[in-house]
Structures are given as structure tokens and as C-alpha cells.
Amino acid sequence: MNPLAYGLLSLIAIAPCTGYDLTQRIQLFWNAKHSQIYPLLAQLEEQQYVRHEHVAQADKPDKKIYTITEQGRAMILGWLLEPTDPPVHRDEFSLKVFSLWLADRESVRKLLQERENLLMDKLSRLRKRQVDLARVTAASQAAGSSTEAPAAKEGEWLSAMAEHKIRTRGRGAECLGDRDEEPGEPEPAALGAACTDAAGASSGVAADTERVSDQVRAPLGVMEKALKEELPDVHDVAWPSPFFGASILIRKAILMAEAELEWCRGILEQV
Fold first, then answer.
1. Of 241, 186, 178, which is closest to residue 28 (Cα–Cα)?
2. Angle at which helices 189-199 and 152-167 pack, to 10 degrees?
3. Which residue of 80, 93, 114, 250 is most buried, as measured by CB atoms within 10 A?
């Protein structure tokens, strides 16, 4: 099987879902189309790694809800132990930095300041993702679904995140990947609604993170202190929650963004 097939199995292991759900949620990790996903689902079912249930709908075509089988879980566990191929990396910003010697000082500073603002905006959104995810997981744990699927609220969180990525043409996937972000992208209503329903309310979080994102020139230590004071329940999701992996991927993205921000500010001091 290819990595995309394992990705589909991993998403179905979180919570039963339709092919449409999978087409959206996989975008957080992998750019895949309907034409790739549905044939793979058929193969996975033929190999007895997933099974589906028909659900009748009054005003729409019937839908198939896919669940993972024990054989499917075993395949994921086997895949986790296999060696991982090196990632394919393309970074336009690094190419521009490589060519900075060709530009005048004003242009260099403009490029770096735009990157600095982008990273600050990305960090504030990532911190909010930590809060959202922790609260969604806490709600599931309270309902007794912390270690086994189905975990409906986790599925809703994934769908909301995927919808954000799709609406912003790929620029909203900062929570589970290392893609570059662009500042100023609005939060879709679906994301806030899904997280609020699952966790039971957090009306002040968006305003808090907006205030943090205004501290564009604040040292990282100051920013970290402000985030801990204003968002006190930011923390990793504990293993073996189904979202342990998502939680540590968010933390990885935060650490990488903080390191790049510090690096970027160091260059600004030199030009």
C-alpha cells in the first residue's frame, strides 16, 4: 500500500467517516483528489481493512460510512514500524534569502519584516489550535471516548480544520504541517462552532490570541509569558488519546515557527 492508503486508514481509525469526509481531512497532510481516494477506499474494503455501512438520506443520495477493521489497525501498526522516506522539501523563501545579496537594503528589510509578521500571525493561530484541541479532547475524555473510536468530536475537529485549509486555498493548514502561512486569513465560522460545541465554550480565546498577535516586535520570552497567562490551559494532549499525534505536531510547528522568527529577527539586525 502507498502512504495515502495508510493516511486514510489512520483517519478512519479516529472516527468512522464518509469518502467526502476523508477527501477533506486528508488535505491536512496530503494533497489528494477524489479520483485517488475513492479507488483506494474500494481496495481497502476489498482487502478487509475497512468496511462500510449504507446510510439512507431523504433528500440526498445514500452515503457510505467507513469504519476500520482489526486487520486495518494491524496494517497501521505495521506501517508505523517501517522506515520512513525522507520528505520532499521545496522552500521559496529560502531561495529568496539565498539571493538577498542582489537586493537593496530596503527591499531586504521589507521581505524579512513580511516574514516576521507572517510568523507572528501563524504562532497566534497555532496557540489557539492547541487550546481548541485540548478542549475537544477533554470533552471526549469526559464522555469516555479518550482511547477508542468512534470519537465524534475529534472527527468534527478534523473536518473543521480541513474546511479552513480548503477555504484558504491551503494557507490554513498550519496545525498539522509545515507549510508556509499568509497573514490575515479569517477564521471560518465552522472551526469556532465545532470547537465550542465540543468543549463547551471559549468565547474569549479568539480575542486573546488577536491581542497576542499584535505583539509583532515582542521578544519570544515575552510572547510566551503572555500566551501562558491569557491561555492558561494550553498543553499537549496526553497519550494514548487519538489526538496525541496531532497535539505534538502542533507543538512541533510552534517550535519551528519560533525558531524561524528568532532567526529572521537576527538577520534584520544585520541589515
1. 178
2. 160
3. 250
Based on its alpha-carbon atoms, the radius of gyration of the chain, rounded to whole angstroms, reads: 20
85-100 per-position pLDDT tens digit: 888 888 899 999 999 9
Cell numbers describing residue 250: 502542533
The rounded distance, in Å, linking the Cα atoms of 17 and 188 is: 22
- Rounded distance between C-alpha atoms, residue 56 and residue 39, angstroms: 22
CB-based burial label for 121 (10 Å; 0-12, 13-18, 19+): buried
**CB-based contact 242:160 (threshold 8 Å):** no
Place of cell 476500520: 68
What does the pLDDT look like over 71-125, one tens digit per residue?
Answer: 999 999 999 999 998 888 888 999 999 999 999 999 999 999 999 999 999 898 8
CA dist 237 and 62 (Å) reads 36
Rounded Cα–Cα distance for residues 193 and 191 (Å): 5
Question: Cell 522552500 identifies what position?
Answer: 91
Query: pTM above 0.85?
Result: no
H/E stretch holding 55: strand 50-55
Domains along the sequence of the chain with CATH = 3-80 (1.10.10.10), 92-268 (no CATH)
Cβ-in-10-Å burial (0-12, 13-18, 19+) of 158 comes to buried
CB 181 within 8 A of CB 171: yes
Question: What are residue 78's DSSP bridge partners?
Answer: none
**Adjacent-strand bridge partners of 54:** 64
Q: At what angle do helices 105-142 and 152-167 cross, to 10 degrees?
A: 160
